[in-house]
Amino acid sequence: MAPRPEIKRDKQFMVVYVGYMGTQDGLFLLLDSIEHLVGRCNRRDVQFVLVGDGSELNDLRASATARGLEPYLTFVGKVPHEDVGLYLSSADVGVAPDPKNPLNDSSTMIKIFEYMAFGLPVVLFDLKEGRRIASAAALYACPNDTIDFANQIAKLLDTPELRQRLGNKGLSYVEERLNWETELKMLLNAYEKALSC
């Protein structure tokens, strides 16, 4: 059995992304936001940890190096599913930089559920389905606006009470309404009503 990864935090804050890294996932937008936070806002207190693999990973690494972001950005690569929780439980904020387009606007992003289940506040672009799922557990950036995305991350990093409040909201949503037991009851009720007509 391989040893479990050790999560090293050399910065005050840790922001995590978990998921596939393809063209549709907005990771280059996230790099723009990181570059804004580090280069223009002079943030030296945050480490971005990207967990996952995908078709864009090599290009993302090259772009991060070219931008000088390596001291603030760690590409973990693909990890066993049971290890994802180690990264989520170590983070302060979860990000979902999926850009606004017709597909993403109506897609449910699993990473948002995962962040909420670990009590992480979420930053995402203002997508219809993302807002429906995360509701008051997230801060929403103007669609595809990387500076606003960076500003929403900074707002969470600078406001511990807001991080805690949004994280608690997300956890309570998962426990109370975004779980299979609750969905099963609603589905059975719907079938009973449909069959009684």
What are the key terms here?
alpha/beta, 51% helix, 197 residues
Concise synopsis of the structure shown:
The protein has nine helices and six strands. With 197 residues, it is an alpha/beta fold.
Question: Would you write up a description of this structure?
Answer:
By secondary structure, this protein is α/β, with parallel strands linked by helices. The protein has one domain: Rossmann fold (3-Layer(aba) Sandwich), CATH 3.40.50.2000. The protein is built from 9 helices and 6 strands. The chain has helices at 27-40, 57-66, 81-90, 102-105, 110-117, 128-134, 146-158, 160-176, 180-196; strands spanning 13-18, 46-51, 73-77, 93-96, 122-125, 138-141. The chain has a 6-stranded parallel β-sheet, sandwiched between helices. α1 (27-40) links the parallel β1 (13-18) and β2. α1 (27-40) packs across α7 (146-158) and α5 (110-117) packs across α8 (160-176).
